[in-house]
Amino acid sequence: MKAGDDGRSDMRRTRLDRYDLAILAALQRDGRMSKLRLSEAIHLSPTPCWERLRRLEREGFIRGYHADVAVDELFDVAHFLVEVTLSRHRAEDFTRFESAVEEHPEVLTCYAVAGGFDYLLMMVADDIAAYQSMIESWLNDDMGVERYFTYVVTRTVKNNRDFPLERFWLTRRRGG
Questions:
Q1: In principle, which of 76, 81, 167, 175 could form an S-S bond with 151, CB 3.0–4.6 Å?
Q2: Residue 146 CB: number of other CB atoms within 10 A?
Q3: Quick check: is 171 in a domain?
Q4: Residue 92 maps to which CATH number?
């Protein structure tokens, strides 16, 4: 078992077949796809397709359906990648920081990482001054931040939210 793996993913993976994977891949590309179009796309009649879809939702393989909003068409915002190192590394320090991050909607993504720092965040703000003000408030709010390094995103080269399901499925099925 891999570190951090509780065994569920391997158990769940064995219950999926190529139709389940096809449903997930199709919906990942177009979450608004009709049931009929979905059944046609995966080459399965509508009733079994719908039953599989409901099972995938019920078992947590589908977390939700979302719109990909063109935020750049609505607002001019600055994006930042931020490396954060905490001053202490006790369980309560990580919990305090993670709880505080949950309260900040400007933090789009927060990864706990191993290596030279503790967290990698993707953040947005109106501009650099607004970002700096936010970070200074974090330092004053005793979130446990010892240091941070900021990288200003100058342009997005790739932003793909579609996980390569087929590639990983085939690798696991072949035992590789």
A1: 81
A2: 13
A3: no
A4: 3.30.70.920
